[in-house]
Structures are given as C-alpha cells and as structure tokens.
Request: fold
Amino acid sequence: MDIAPDTVADIVIRLRAIEVKEGATDPDSGSNPIDDGATDVLVSGTDDATESEVRSMIAGLDDDSRAELLALLYVGRGDMEPEEWDAAVKFAREREAVGEGAMKELLGSPDAGDLLEEGLDAMGLTPDLPQA
Reply:
C-alpha cells in the first residue's frame, strides 16, 4: 500500500470533525462563544474550513493514493475483503475515472472516518487515532 497510514489518519480526524457537525438551528442567536460554551464549532457554516481541508487533502493525493484511500473505505465498509485489495484498488480507479471517486464517496458517507479506520485495521495497520 502506497498511501501512508498517517495521511489516512489525518483525513479520518477531519472527516470525524465534519461528521459531528449539524446544521444551524438558531442562526441569528446573537450569542458569542464565551456565553454559549463555544458550541457553535459543532455547527456547519459558510466559514467552516473543515470540509475544504478534507477536499484539499484528497485532491492533493496522487492517483494511486486516492484510489487506495477509496479502497480502504470499501474494505472498512465490508464491500471487499483485505485479500481482495488489488481488486478494491482497481474498482476505486474505475470510480475515479467516471467522476464518482474518493471525494464524492468519502464526503457523502456519514461514517467515512470510522470506515477508513476499520479499513486500516482490516489491513493490519493501526495509526494512533483518537477514538470517536
């Protein structure tokens, strides 16, 4: 596997930060972070850089690493077994070629961070990740 487990771990952390966010429930509250215990960090907004960070990280990967990242999602999700790694990577490359690759699948999956971690674990790789 060419993609570094630590790179995957960085993406997992950022995906989890996206996954815990919710839509604005009171966008005109007039509250400030000191008064509300800084809970607004858990609300998605137009000034939220987390998703753009994930997009930049994925876009910055070379084609092989992006395919392997997506293959880890397939293994973590149980679509493919670790023994089918080459087939998983090939399928991921095909998905990338038709525009339905890593960016779309990772950001469209509500538990992508956990699935990537499970994929790493299934492949026998265990980077130091904080527990969800």
Observations:
- The chain has six helices and no strands.
- The mean pLDDT is 81.
- The helical segments are 5-19, 50-59, 63-77, 85-97, 102-108, 112-122.
